[in-house]
Amino acid sequence: MSEYFVSCARMKTLEQNTDAAGLSYYQMMENAGTLAANRIVEITMATPISDTRCGAQCGGDNGASAADSGLSAANNGVSAADTSLPAANISCASEAGGQPLTDNDLSATNNSRASAAGDQLAAAAAQTGARLYPWALDRHLRVRVYCGKGNNGGDGFVVARRLKQQGWDVDLVLVDGEPVTPDAIENRRLTQQLAIPEKSLTETEQDSPDGPDVVVDAIYGTGFHGQLREAGALAAAQIAAARARGARVFALDIPSGMGGDLTEEDDLDPRCVRADVTITFHAKKAVHLQGFAGKYCGRIIVADIGIVDADRDAADQMKDPEQSGVTEATRSFEDFVEIIRRLRAPDGCPWDRAQTHETLKKYLLEETQEAADAIDNHDDANFCEELGDVLLQVVLNAQVAKERGAFTIEDVIEGISGKMIRRHPWVFGDMKVSSPEEGEKLWEEIKKKEKEKKNSQGS
Q1: Domain that holds residue 407
Q2: 337 with 354, same domain?
Q3: What is the distance between the alpha carbons of residues 239 and 233, in angstroms, rounded to a whole number?
């Protein structure tokens, strides 16, 4: 079964229908920004900005043990489709008992009550964060939210407010000037009540060298098309510079410069924002399913903001019963990539930061041999561990290469994926083979042709 997604036009219709059913556009924005803020807190706390937790772990096993145990904490009413990071995430709480609001509750809730419920949510999340991550209280995390003038910017204002209420050091950048939609205007007013500073693009150019720890891209939404204009391109360049310095970038709904219905990378503005995590609302959009999306979106999380969608509900019911309702308690590949990036960050582990391809070469050889030994010994437990050590070498070398501007782990995956598809035309094409030997022969023929083509292009 193909993965469910919605087009931009369909999303607009769903929002209209949900508003008519009683869940206002304002409350949808409040839900989106609050859930996004909670996810940003979870992921950031899972791989801490401070290096105080690295300690002696950094040297052992090449830093593989630096993962945060808080990720296994209980999930308190996560109101998002993605649950691969089940640390404390608290959905919009009602006034009675802090239970998650139902659709009926939300339909009957006016905007002032929604704001009060959101304040309760933020306070509860802050308490949970202090309990799970007391080390984070030693430092105010710096976050910069880039806001456009539409509803995507409105989501950003909500995120800024929620993070400020949790004790983060927040500032705002109004990329295209004052917000123009009513709900965005109102949420900007609420950030002003909290005295969240606003900076111009020119002022952010004069930042201190370290800059923010976290950047939130809330400039343009899924309806964007065409090329970035001057202000948007400058903002995207600033975000890229912050990411290069080690900041973690979160995009709301979609990285700015991409369009929700985009299916061809050639139509994409190459200056668009590249995020570490994209938090999209209600459902994935067409662009999220494209092969090139990972380079720009990073990890994609779907947050359920209360939109009524019978088609999505039907799709959920058609899923494999063994998979329905499963809460994943293990870390994903994207989480592991983020852990390695964090270890290599300016305030990460000194041992990991000192490594180069040359110094890592011996570890790659050693871990590969140890994995081979585990195969010979028929030791599955040890084999599993050694494969993890080999994976560490792959991801760590890819992170070093990324910092050099050579290639990324996404490039590695894209390259090997393309190779597997090209060299298996009897699986992904119309060709037929009748035996393993015939398949191997065709593989070698395709491989030879690819090398000849590569050599001719290089000469």
Answers
A1: 350-458
A2: no
A3: 10
> What is the CATH classification number for the domain harbouring 27?
3.40.50.10260
- Closest to 142 in 3D by CA, of 234, 204, 63: 204
pLDDT for 96 equals: 29
Residue 145: its H or E element: strand 142-147
- Asked if residues 168 and 133 have their Cβ atoms less than 8 Å apart, the reply is no
Q: Can you tell me the distance from the alpha carbon of 37 to that of 96, in angstroms, rounded to the nearest whole number?
A: 23
* Per-residue pLDDT tens digits for 416-448: 988 888 888 888 888 888 899 988 998 899 889
**CB-based contacts of 251, cutoff 8 Å, min separation 6:** 216, 217, 273, 275, 277, 278, 279, 297, 298
pLDDT in tens, 362-395: 999 999 999 999 999 999 999 999 999 999 999 9
The pLDDT of residue 249: 96
Same domain, 317 and 423: no
As given in the structure block, the two tokens for residue 375 are: 């195969």
Q: How far apart are CA 386 and CA 381, in angstroms?
A: 9
pLDDT for 28 equals 95
Residue 140, classed as helix, strand or coil, is: coil
Kindly list the strands in the beta sheet with 198-199, ordered across the sheet, starting from the edge strand earlier in the chain: 198-199, 169-174, 142-147, 214-218, 248-252, 277-281, 299-303
How would residue 2 be classed by pLDDT, with cut points 50, 70 and 90? low
Alpha carbon distance 403, 396 (integer Å): 11
Look up the pTM and report it: 0.57
Place of tokens 């391109």: 233
Within 154-304, strands assigned E span: 169-174, 198-199, 214-218, 248-252, 277-281, 284-285, 299-303
What pLDDT digit, counting tens, does each position of 220-241 carry? 999 898 899 999 999 999 999 9
Tell me the average pLDDT of the chain.
Answer: 78
Does 130 share its domain with 32? yes
- Max Cα-Cα span within the chain: 73
Q: What's the domain count of the chain?
A: 2
Rg from Cα positions in the chain = 23
- Report whether pLDDT(247) > 80: yes
Given its phi and psi angles, is residue 125 left (phi above 0), alpha (psi -120 to 50 degrees) or beta?
alpha
Residue with the larger pLDDT of the pair 54 and 394? 394
335 and 445 part of one domain:
no
Enter the tokens of residue 323: 């998979």
Query: In this structure, what are the phi and psi dihedrals at residue 259, rounded to the nearest 5 degrees?
Result: -115, 145
* Mean pLDDT, rounded, for 146-173: 95
Contact 39, 332 (CB under 8 A): no
